[in-house]
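Attaching the record inline, Q. Sequence:
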Amino acid sequence: MQYGNFPVLHDINSYRSIVSGKSNEVLVRISEMILSVILIMLKKTIVVLCLHCSLASYAQNLVPNPSFEKYKKLDCLNVGAFTIGTGISPKSVFDSLLYDWTAATWPNTFFLSTLIDSTCNKNSDICYLPGCSANPEAAFHVRPKDGYNITGILLVEGYKKNYNSRSYLQAMLESPLTANTRYLAGCYSTLPNYYSQGAYATNNLGLYFSEQPVGNNIIGSPNVLRYTPQVNQGEVNEDNVNWKKLSGCFTAKGGEQYITIGNFYEDSQTKADLLVPFVTGSDFALYLIDSVFTEEIKDPLIPNVITPNGDGKNDQFKIENVHFGWWGLDVFNRWGRQVFHSDDYRNTWNGDDLSPGVYYYDLRHRCPGISYKGPLTIIR
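Structure, as predicted:
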């Protein structure tokens, strides 16, 4: 018997059943000795496998300052938003606050920090944010996903009037993307848990990778950056309690060195659900952004032996270089019967109560065309 192109390896007992019918007892004993030596060598190989796993290199996040923790200054008023009556460009304000990140267009791009006094500018007449605070807990009742700081962008503004007004975040990657290489990219977003007027939930939060920076600082509408994002959120995100992960995979053309985050589609191509009725001023969809990432999808390092005997060594089928939430795993016995299945494998399978022997794994990525198959020996 065999599974796919994988040959069958029998254990000692099954091998005995094959050769015991022969009259030559010497042949039986010699065969058992040979197979015993093979199994002993496999056990010793585990040490080498573990050493190999310990040297595994994890994928590097190519996005600099991914959680916006490196800042130039904290200012409870200058959060990157246009402040009424000042005449200051929101882009120039935002660009003066953060390292590595810039606003790609002129409309309001926000930098918020829990390190800022939540009561600052509370009585200011020119503060743009609710509660007049650049502290996200005070302004929007939101805590950062990671660290102390977050950013915010307008995916639509003036939606009912078809203004096509947008704000975008942009950064230069740590190194250019490599041609014909698969990457996993994304960020976390949430809606403010506070609305003043005309607030929408929308879709089309996207990530666009380019060789050169994109954007403009022309004051006025429309200012949609009309590019096709490699990663895009197709469904409307109405969650204002939890941080939602946007992620996707793509193949780089090569040389892409800038990441831009925002809505790259016009209002007519964007879905929007009204959350708070429009009263006065401009209606909008403001999304808070945190924890941006871009990583190469590396080949996983897959062991071919596990020893689930409870000694704390090689008890689980642990695979290196896997992003949890992106890999599924099936395991089959030598007759092709499925003995394990997971759509979200997290390195926890210990062979259950399966008998010692050779099995076959099928490890697959959610991105099309990425899968790995091979034999797996269980030794107890």
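Helices lie at 12-19, 25-54, 90-95, 136-140. The CA atoms of residues 61 and 281 lie 40 Å apart.

More tomorrow.
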